Amino acid sequence: MTEMVYGAVPSRAGEPVLPKWWRTVDKWSLSCIFILFGIGLLLGLAASPPLAERNGFAPFHYVQRQAFFGGTALIVLIVTSMLSPIVVRRFAVIGFVFAFIALALLPFFGTDFGKGAVRWYSIGFGSLQPSEFLKPTFVIVAAWLLAASQELGGPPGKTLSFALTVSIVLMLALQPDFGQACLVLFGWGVMYFVAGAPMLLLIGMAGLVIFAGTVAYQNSEHFARRIDGFLSPEVDPTTQLGYATNAIREGGFFGVGVGEGQVKWSLPDAHTDFIIAVAAEEYGLVLVLIIIALYATIVVRSLLRLMRERDPFIRLAGTGLACMFGVQAMINMGVAVRLLPAKGMTLPFVSYGGSSLIAGGIAVGMLLAFTRTRPQGEIGDILRGRLR
């Protein structure tokens, strides 16, 4: 009866997993991810050797680690994208519980690695940043609650998801990690908007964010220092923003040439937070525009496919993941060109980082799982049925 009403697409009984996955996955988005990872390795070859030399490692130590973590992330991405939405939700709930507990215990067992913010666990051979794994799993849990609240007799999902969001944002702000806190709040706000939130409520939330930012500015030296540096009309050429700004200016349209850039010798985070400055200096505006186009393709194609989805949970979760992925890339690049205050946020699949790469693989794998073509009707079938 469901197929007669919603016009479901017939499935191929007994079809093997891999052919079915390849037939239904968004190949354009998948290709863009692999290209971004390739660009990340290319830029890592330029940005990592100076840091390796300063730390006494082999020249391509960090590139090899990036290849390992990135390869692991791509495997996780593909495996996750093969799962059904229900299985994705089950694993995400379990992962969220562990990530939430890990985030809550950071003040007691975490470390700041000399960067002034307790965001990581030191695990001997590397570090683990719980907030990176919390973001995608939080989106799934929040979308589940918001979707459940739309059902007759359902739980107060909007209230519960809001309480969960506030608790996470407060824990992130105390690290302090205002960038990730804003990203979590943005992801929830987008899903709440798609779920039908009143515009006045969203305006009120924006006012609360501005108020919280004012309080943080007055009480957090870390936050105030970054805001003051962003608002200052003069950029100190010896700061990270100064080096990045000069590198982008020097790169011009076509760049100074492969391996000829100088910013990687000055920036301690050239291989992570400011990798786009390396790209702009050595390869110019051309490569930067290609990177932007790749991110835009992933986000736009995902949202277009989700517009045809009739399951509220899938639509909300996919929208949250896609928007959070795109905004993180925008924030990273915006910081490098002084459009935004410094946030300490990586460029997905391009920057070096074990936690960010693997967590990014999980997030995009979930997104690809939600945007796969499944044997079901689209939301347009319901709308056409109502108009008859």
Characterize the structure shown.
It contains 16 helices and 2 strands. With 388 residues, the chain is mostly helical. It has one domain. Strands 1-2 form a two-stranded antiparallel ribbon. Helix 10 packs across helix 11 and helix 12 packs across helix 13. The chain is globular, with a radius of gyration of 22 Å. The protein starts with a helix and ends with a helix. The N terminus is likely disordered.
Q: What is the count of DSSP helices, taking H or I runs of 4+ residues?
A: 16
What strand order characterises the main sheet? 1-2
Quantity of strands, as a count? 2
Structural class: mainly alpha
Poorly predicted tracts of residues:
1-11
Question: Portion of residues in helices?
Answer: 55-70%
Number of domains: 1
The helix/strand series, from N terminus to C terminus, equals HHHHHHEEHHHHHHHHHH
The biggest beta sheet reads: 2 strands, antiparallel
What is the approximate shape?
Answer: globular
Amount of beta strand: under 5%
Radius of gyration in whole Å, from Cα?
Answer: 22 Å
In round numbers, the mean pLDDT is 86
Distance between the termini: 18 Å
GO molecular function: lipid-linked peptidoglycan transporter activity; peptidoglycan glycosyltransferase activity
GO biological process, one term: cell wall organization
InterPro entries: FtsW, FtsW/RodA
EC number: 2.4.99.28
